[in-house]
Amino acid sequence: MLHHRLPLPPLLLALLLAVSCHDASSGDDNYDRNLCLWQNSTCGNINITYPFYLHNETAALRGYDNSYCGYPGLRILCEDRKAVLQLDDDNYTVSEINYKNFTISLAVADQEAFDDEGCPRLDYRTTIPPHLWLSYPEATVGYLIFFLCNFTTGNPPITMSPIPCSRYEGLGTSFVLPRDDVPDGDWQKTCQKIKVPVLKYVMSSYQQKHIAWSSAAYGNALRTGFQLVWEQERRETSFCNRCEKSSGRCGYNQMGEFVGCLCSDETVEDQYCSNSSASSTPSPRPSKSLRN
Ligand SMILES: *[C@@H]1O[C@H](CO)[C@@H](O)[C@H](O)[C@H]1NC(C)=O
Ligand SMILES: *[C@@H]1O[C@H](CO)[C@@H](O)[C@H](O)[C@H]1NC(C)=O
Ligand SMILES: *[C@@H]1O[C@H](CO)[C@@H](O)[C@H](O)[C@H]1NC(C)=O
Ligand SMILES: *[C@@H]1O[C@H](CO)[C@@H](O)[C@H](O)[C@H]1NC(C)=O
Ligand SMILES: *[C@@H]1O[C@H](CO)[C@@H](O)[C@H](O)[C@H]1NC(C)=O
Ligand SMILES: *[C@@H]1O[C@H](CO)[C@@H](O)[C@H](O)[C@H]1NC(C)=O
Ligand SMILES: *[C@@H]1O[C@H](CO)[C@@H](O)[C@H](O)[C@H]1NC(C)=O
Is pTM, for the whole model, over 0.85? Predict the structure, then answer.
């Protein structure tokens, strides 16, 4: 296409060269193919593929350090054949990834859920930062509310049985209840409330039996863990949609902003991969220079 039969006027040639050099510096960056999980990989018995990405595979893309190839929030650390989802500084063991309904099941290890006395540690991250494409699926996740109370006057409702945990000493008595079963009243005023996500089916197995929330009940609920869903609609309403339709993969920076479309030929494009690059195999890139 660029092999013109007629000699080009020098001015036009210079112009073409200038345009081509400009293209090379702005619209056509490269990246290391390992950044994206192009192939399916496994970590233990968990299949991991894009839109997940490995925590150690980040790169500077278009001037943004520590950018990655995947959706914000889907960062996986694979250690000792165990897949761990890293939400900011918290680590959660992945027990299943379901690519059909976009669900991640997370287990909470005993040492993460309980202290040496068997008292729950209530430092779960329940508020997911808005730039991450993750949320709690309403269909499967409910909440236990832990009340750490300081009653100076009055008493807690009689239906609540206290949790004996010195961990919360100084605060007074603590209670736990499913969110939907919390009795109304002033009694809550002196209590610090901590919301913990659990699976609805585990919670309802105890609710149906009308038994108090014994340590066995909340223990079981906490141990079973919870689920997160990745928000596919965030892709559909963003640049990422067009990028994926062109067989590209979406690159994001640490703030969760789209930085470019990563194509299978190791180029980074603004929005989408050209048809030729999407279908070509990963081989040495064709020279795009007009020289020679
Ligand atoms: C990769 O894994 C995904 C999700 O499990 C699956 O849908 C897809 O078919 C797999 N592809 C290959 C080539 O195994
Ligand atoms: C993982 O992927 C492989 C190949 O794509 C498939 O055979 C296997 O069933 C998958 N395992 C799970 C747990 O999804
Ligand atoms: C990242 O970790 C994976 C698996 O844990 C490993 O295969 C890969 O080589 C690591 N990449 C870098 C850049 O260290
Ligand atoms: C999560 O795991 C990583 C790697 O093992 C570790 O460096 C980090 O401290 C862990 N974070 C927490 C909060 O335990
Ligand atoms: C997604 O499907 C899996 C397997 O069928 C199921 O365990 C899980 O509860 C589902 N998640 C949601 C949010 O529906
Ligand atoms: C509990 O209430 C008492 C009386 O109001 C107060 O002195 C004390 O500081 C409170 N303790 C906590 C941990 O809030
Ligand atoms: C790819 O090709 C199809 C038809 O062959 C065309 O409709 C589409 O616009 C092309 N996409 C890009 C990104 O060039």
Answer: no
